[in-house]
Amino acid sequence: MPSKASTFRTGFVAIIGRPNVGKSTLTNRLVGAKVSITSKKAQTTRHRIHGILTTDTAQLIFVDTPGFQKKHLNALNRAMNRNISSALLDVSVVVLVVEAGRWGQGENDLLAMLPDEVPVILAINKIDRLKDKVELLPFIAQVAALRDFAAIYPLSAEQGDGCDALIVGATTHLPESPMIFDADDFTDRPERFLAAEILREKLFRNLGEELPYGIAVEIEQFEMEGDLRRIHAAIVVDKAGHKSIVIGKQGEQLKRISTDARKGMESLFGGRVWLETWVKVKSGWADDQRALKSLGYE
Question: How much is the pTM?
Answer without folding.
Answer: 0.74
